[in-house]
Request: fold
Amino acid sequence: MTGLVRLVHPAPAAAVVLLSAALGTILLGQAGQSLVGAPLLLTVLAVAGSQVFTGALNDWADRARDAVAQPGKPIPSGQVSPSAALALAGAGLVVQVAASAPLGPLPLLLGLAASGSAAAYDLWLSRTPASVLPYLVSFGILPLWIASGVGVSLERVALAPLLVGPFAAAAHLANTLRDFDGDAALGSRSLAQTLGRRRAFVTAWLLAMGVGVTAGVVALTGGVLGPIVTLLGAAGLVAVVQGYPGPGRLWPGMLVAAVTWTAAWAIATG
Reply:
């Protein structure tokens, strides 16, 4: 059971699910709709299913590489068999589709597009200079997926991808930098490897800080920088700032910032 939990990459998966639940709740509240109901529950469940699918498929696809670079991971260590990992990925996809289908064709299609992009990363693009593209696509789709799932107009989140894109690129670099040496030894040509360790880290940190500062300036000039928005925004900035010593601290800091800044943005645009 421990190995199966580790397969889904629980920390980032939990952050994405929490972010989705927070965004869906805020959007429903601002629209004057009930916060208790099937649309929000099914949307969050669909996102959770997609995270299980993506995480388990990633470890399955990288099992041979992990046997060399990270032998302690669930599959190479023998905690989980490759077939069990693939079955878990399939179960996650089934949960996603089953939860999305009652919400209508748009949430179903947006969710499948996000998961399809993530699968392309797992199976191919993660080891190429285009490794950042699935992050841009999948996380750019996420706000639209949540809004459509809970039945809120997509206009409310139409501009979100403009900030989500740079932050997703930063998250990708911060994440891959944690395995930089192992990936380099295995001949990976991901974007982080192409840029080099130092340049990739500085790029990730600057992109993340740039998103936070830009969002704060926009909120200030728009007159929506209230106490709650300020507190959430500052918490995210602190989380990113403390990550400057290295990728091991930047990655968890960005997970915190993703949740706090999403909440701040949703409140500020209400």
